[in-house]
């Protein structure tokens, strides 16, 4: 049977498209991004925040893998921006050129630690932060293995009635996460609240102290200090350069503590 020129061209085009199409990324080292607005990101995106890396992926709201770029989160679409996640991944990708990274954005702006438990509903975003995170994490695990959990939260718990019990609640959260995700030794890395938050709210200092104490008794837990970073003018959220620096500090923990395999 004679094949027409147009048919042959179309067939070859389809073959080429399929050959270079990459619907499913390679096996990924997965990192869960959880907490509230400073993990989600509120910095203004700039050109470098739109630059993708072929080895860094993110799970979208509708559970698809795409090349990672800011904004990654979707908790409050009208204000979400640059957080620490992408800079974290870029730092790791630079250090480990064979690693393929999958980011799982799940942070929810304004969420207190009490809504990070099964069944808890958060009205401002009409979401279930913990349950939604667990669904996303389990879907992501089909594409790789969990390599780390990044937590930045506590501004909403910086009050006299909440700060004093923060350490206990964080410990419970980590235990629950590790059990449900079968991740007993996966690094759990927390970040302290910004100096600008502490300067206007003494209870934020109590939360920071709780974060730093907690990692001393929670196995495989580490703390990133956000000292010296600056806000975007609202005394609450990291500006874009500081969000990137915070992400790099998270990555430095994994690098310095040798928490990831160098051959990945």
Condensed summary:
The chain has 264 residues and is an alpha/beta fold. Helices cover 37% and strands 14% of the residues.
For this entry, give a set of tags.
single chain, 264 residues, alpha/beta, 37% helix
Tell me the helix content.
25-40%
What is the arithmetic mean of pLDDT?
92
CATH class bucket: Alpha Beta
Rg is 20 Å
Number of E strands: 7
Notes on the protein architecture:
The protein has 264 residues and is of the alpha/beta class. It has one domain (23-256): SGNH hydrolase (Rossmann fold), CATH 3.40.50. The protein has 8 helices and 7 strands. Strands 3-2-4-1-5-6-7 form a 7-stranded mixed sheet, sandwiched between helices. Helix 5 links the parallel strand 5 and strand 6. Helix 3 (85-95) crosses helix 8 and helix 5 (166-180) packs across helix 7. The radius of gyration is 20 Å and the shape is globular.
């Amino acid at each position: 049977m004679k094949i027409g020129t147009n048919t042959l061209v179309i067939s070859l085009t389809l073959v080429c498209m399929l050959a270079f199409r990459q619907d499913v990324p390679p096996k990924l080292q997965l990192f869960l991004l959880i907490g509230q607005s400073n993990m989600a990101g509120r910095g203004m995106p700039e050109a470098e925040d739109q630059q993708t890396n072929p080895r860094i992926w993110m799970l979208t709201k509708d559970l698809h893998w795409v090349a990672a770029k800011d904004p990654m989160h979707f908790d409050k679409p009208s204000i979400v921006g640059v957080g620490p996640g992408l800079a974290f991944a870029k730092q790791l990708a630079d250090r480990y050129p064979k690693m393929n990274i999958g980011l799982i954005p799940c942070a929810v702006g304004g969420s207190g630690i009490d809504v990070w438990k099964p069944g808890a509903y958060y009205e401002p975003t009409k979401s279930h932060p913990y349950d939604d995170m667990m669904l996303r994490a389990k879907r992501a695990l089909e594409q790789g293995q969990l390599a780390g959990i990044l937590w930045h939260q506590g501004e909403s718990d910086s009050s006299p009635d909440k700060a004093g019990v923060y350490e206990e609640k964080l410990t419970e959260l980590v235990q629950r996460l590790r059990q449900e995700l079968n991740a007993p030794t996966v690094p759990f890395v927390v970040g302290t609240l910004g100096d600008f938050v502490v300067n206007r709210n003494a209870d934020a200092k109590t939360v920071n102290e709780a974060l730093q104490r907690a990692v001393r008794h929670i196995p495989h837990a580490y703390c990133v200090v956000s000292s010296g970073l600056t806000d975007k003018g609202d005394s609450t959220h990291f500006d874009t350069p500081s969000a990137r620096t915070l992400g790099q500090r998270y990555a430095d923990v994994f690098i310095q503590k040798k928490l990831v395999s160098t051959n990945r």
